[in-house]
Structures are given as C-alpha cells and as structure tokens.
Design goal:
The chain has 271 residues and is of the alpha/beta class. 22% of the residues lie in helices and 26% in strands. The chain is globular and about 50 Å long. The structure holds zinc ion (3 copies).
Length: 271
C-alpha cells in the first residue's frame, strides 16, 4: 500500500492565513515541512480520503488524481469536504476520461454535496453512497469499515481500510474514542494508524472533539498493549492546528521518543 499525504493541517491550514502567532510566523520563516494544507491522503493512486485542498496539493506535491475510483469523506466539515469543487472532475476541467468516483460519506455530508455541488453526479462522474458507523463494505480490492468519531458533526466517521495486503486506520477529527468505537477498533490489527493530533500541548479534555499530544501518546501505548499494531506498524500524528503545535522538528522530538511519527505534506509512505 502506498500513501501520499496531501495535507496534514487542521481547518485553518498551517500557517493560518489571518494569523501572526509565533507558531505561524515560525512556519513562514522555516518553510519546508512546516507548511501544511488541510488534511487528506491518497492511497495507491485510486483511493482518496477527504476532499479539500486538492488544487494546491496536486501542484505542490506533484500528484494527479485521475485514477481515483473511491472517495471516502470522513465528515461534514468544510476542511474535509469542499463540496463545490466536484466540477474539477468534469470536462473541461479534466480533459481525459476519468473513472466514475464512488463517494462514501455520512448522510449529512451527502446532503452537503447535493446542496453545494453545481455539477450533478452524471456531469462530474461521481456516485453518492451514504454510509453509517458499524458498516462494512467492499469495492474493488478494498474492504472498508466505518466507525463513529467523537466530533461535532451529525455523524462523523473514521475509516479502517484494507487493500488486500495492508490495513490502515484513518482516524482524523476525533476526541477520545467512544466505548462502542473502541470495541470495533479492537476487532482489527493495523499496519498504520493515522491519528488526529490537532490540539498539541493543550490537555485533551473528556469532551474534546480532537486529541492533543497527551492523548495521542496514551493511544500509542494502548494500541500496542492491546496488540493492535502489526510488526513494523506506523503510528502517525496529523491534522495539526497552529494553536498549540510547535514546529515540525519540535513535534518530531516530542513524539519520536514514543514511537510516533509526525506526518508532513507530500510524504510518500510505502507500507
Ligand atoms: Zn478537520
Ligand atoms: Zn497562528
Ligand atoms: Zn472536523
């Protein structure tokens, strides 16, 4: 399985456009891995998760999405679903034939697409498939499982994905897992876990809709203790907010000693 991180920031991007806090200013000075678009990942050229900063990602990280056959939307927030941009998948904005893109999303996100996309599914060659927490389905070589996130939209989802060889857990935009979610997670073992680390040094409260460094470190230990990490598994933090996350290098030193990797934009990871 090949992963390409198209974006690794929270909703405001990093640096945030209207912000001159020390973290944003430092990111502007340092550049490189400190510059982050909104979170999204491409798997094996044909599976895309979330749908926001695709234009800058395609330009800056030299990827093309013409082979994408499946799009998973985690939840109904604009930094994960920029519903207006389905026109990109239609002529004349693509001048090559593209496969139909099956979009799996929670119902409230499907509604957002129906409301905001100027292009119909026929015009832009996509199809809409509502999914709920607890569902398992297949498409092509992939198996998918949806579990419920702890987050502020109507039905936020996290996805477990298997491509026939490897299994990953895409766990963005969630606070601490609900008991029923944790029970479902424990039915799997993973080659990679990509986990929300929005809040940085801010302690993760019981009702938070995101995780900070403290909870990510706890979960790394818990996943290992429960035997959910396969040999050589990657445990990767992403979805960084400028608010309380320091530079890339500082995150690497804070998380590296706990065997947690720090995602960055344009990272190509082979599992
Ligand atoms: Zn987000
Ligand atoms: Zn800032
Ligand atoms: Zn969100």
């Amino acid at each position: 399985m090949r992963l390409v991180f198209l974006g690794t920031a929270a909703a405001e991007g990093y640096p945030a456009p209207f912000c001159t806090c020390p973290n944003c200013q430092r990111a502007r000075e340092l550049g490189g891995r400190n510059i982050r678009l909104r979170s999204s990942v491409l798997i094996n050229d044909d599976l895309l998760i979330d749908f926001c900063d695709l234009v800058p990602a395609a330009a800056f990280y030299r990827v093309e999405l013409s082979k994408v056959e499946t799009l998973l939307i985690t939840h109904n927030h604009a930094d994960h679903l920029w519903a207006e941009q389905f026109f990109l998948h239609a002529h004349p904005f693509t001048r090559v034939p593209v496969p139909e893109m099956a979009v799996y999303a929670p119902r409230d996100a499907i509604e957002r697409i129906r409301r905001l996309s100027e292009r119909t599914p026929e015009e832009a060659r996509y199809s809409l498939h509502p999914v709920s927490a607890g569902e398992h389905w297949t498409r092509g070589r992939y198996h998918f499982w949806a579990v419920r996130a702890t987050h502020s939209t109507e039905e936020p989802l996290l996805y477990i994905i298997q491509d026939g060889e490897k299994k990953v857990f895409y766990s963005t935009d969630t606070g601490r897992y609900l008991p029923e979610t944790w029970e479902r997670i424990k039915e799997h073992t993973f080659d990679a876990v990509i986990i929300d680390e929005t809040m940085g040094t801010i302690p993760t409260g019981p009702r938070s809709g995101h995780l900070g460094l403290d909870a990510v470190i706890e979960y790394r230990q818990l996943f290992a203790k429960e035997g959910l990490l396969r040999p050589g598994a990657h445990f990767i933090a992403h979805h960084f907010s400028h608010g309380a996350n320091p530079s890339y290098e500082e995150l690497v030193s804070l998380l590296g000693e706990h065997d947690i990797e720090v995602a960055y934009d344009g990272w190509r990871l082979e599992l």
